[in-house]
Amino acid sequence: QGTNMDPVLDYVQQHYAKPNPNYYGVAKGKNVIIIHLESFQQFLIDSKVKDQEVTPFLNSLYHSDNTLSFANFFHEVGQGKTSDAETMMETSLFGLPEGSFFTSLGSNNTFQAAPAILNQQQGYTSAAFHGNTGSFWSRDTVYKNMGYNYFFDQKYYQQTADSNTYWGSKDKLLFAESAKYLEQLQQPFYTKFLTVTNHNPFELAENDTEGFDKPDTPNTMVNNYFATAHYLDDSVREFFDYLKSSGLYDNSIVILYGDHFGLNAGDEKDLAPLLNKDPNHWTNFDHTQLQRVPFMIHMPGLKGGIQKQYGGEIDALPTLLHLLGVNTKPYIFMGNDLLSKQHDQNVIFRNHNFVTPQYTVMTNNNNNSLTIYQNSTGHLIEHPSKKLEQKMRKVAKTKNNELNISDTVNKTNLLRFYTPPNFTPVDPKHYNYQNQFQ
Ligand code: GP9
Ligand code: MN
């Protein structure tokens, strides 16, 4: 066909990790509920401010025997922020080196995305719930290409004087008002709830965080971040209460993930004392450690526990599909199953820095040098051995190749030339998000 699919297929085949037999299919036929925790960083889990737990409910989920909790899971977004996280979570391809894949190409490209795969393989109905305007990040068109059956955007939620923050419906209202739509969905369903309240500048009315005493750092952004994270935590607790009382909890698997950092690099020195770190010795290593975000998989009866293996957003979809008993081999995915013995634990960021279970590595494009930190100590390795240096260069090469392959697929819309067996490309014309269930 004159396309560049061969190197892509080679990479995907080599990089495939076969499912862990202890987990393959354990969630087969369950409803899938994905909770997108806006700007939520892993350091919030188990953190305390003035003796108060910041996120008591998420902490309880993190430590639940029925939750697979990934302690070393990193966001991998670029400028496309939330939309990059969605790209990775739903397609296991990366966002672009510049800009947002959703807004620049997502409205026209062919996808192999979770909603379509699950619909065609296992009869799932899909829906996205988000309290911001539907056209933000071009979601109203991109979701059609992904095969989302329903998209409930801002116009499906009440708009009153105090129902919104700048980014849309407050999270508690989003969850509460989504129930009436959720209940009408054909099961099994694949759904995602995109929260917004914990978004920069983290502004929220005092009475929404009553009883929570913010930190008193000199940085308002830092102080507010803990308050909106606390609110988000409580909104998830309320949603779980609803899931349990409605009975949906018993036949659902819930995935929770943080999309990316909330506090910018410039705010980290003010955050440092709250993490018992010295702001005067804040390094690139420390900054990179803060790129951890939650990834939790919760289901009644699931054999959970805190997972130490390293991974990132690119790995979420193959992990989930294997739990649902879907063979991922036919699809063009860049990530691989976090639960597989063959899982690739090297995590690349969009700026080409990367982490391995042992090292955190900065790549300097100007002089092609590597700066290597030891994860166990946080120390810079001043004079790395030739052997270590070579090993890290090899990782850099492989992972950069992964980014390049993903970019080629997205930038040249390669999936239009490659239809996996038993997959029908999505026709966006079949989807319409006006007047759903009203
Ligand atoms: C907007 C929300 C925020 O709808 O998803 O996106 P972000 O600014 O985090 O990319
Ligand atoms: Mn975001």
* Order of neighbouring strands in the sheet with most strands: 6-5-9-1-10-11-4-12
Helix content: 25-40%
Number of strands: 16
Using only C-alpha atoms, the radius of gyration works out to 21 Å
Distinct small-molecule ligands in the complex = (2R)-2,3-dihydroxypropyl phosphate, manganese (II) ion
Content-based structural category:
alpha/beta
Order of helices and strands: HEEEHEHHHEHEEEHEHEHHEEHEEEEH
What's the rounded overall pLDDT mean? 97
Q: Beta fraction of the residues? A: 15-25%
Low-confidence segments, ≥5 residues, pLDDT <50? none
Distance between the termini: 46 Å
How many helices? The count is 12
Q: What would you call the shape? A: globular
Largest sheet: 8 strands, mixed
Can you give a write-up of this model?
This protein has helices at residues 5-15, 56-62, 81-91, 101-104, 114-122, 139-146, 171-182, 220-246, 268-271, 284-289, 316-323, 386-411; strands at residues 31-37, 48-49, 52-53, 67-74, 125-130, 150-152, 164-165, 168-169, 189-194, 252-258, 295-298, 305-312, 347-348, 354-355, 359-364, 369-374. The model has no long low-confidence stretch (mean pLDDT 97). It is of the alpha/beta class and 438 residues long. A hairpin with a 5-residue loop joins strand 13 and strand 14. The protein is built from twelve helices and 16 strands. The termini are far apart. Helix 7 (171-182) packs parallel to helix 8. Strands 6-5-9-1-10-11-4-12 form an eight-stranded mixed beta sheet, sandwiched between helices. The structure holds (2R)-2,3-dihydroxypropyl phosphate and manganese (II) ion (MN). (2R)-2,3-dihydroxypropyl phosphate is lined by residues 81-82, 132, 136, 167, 194, 196, 199.
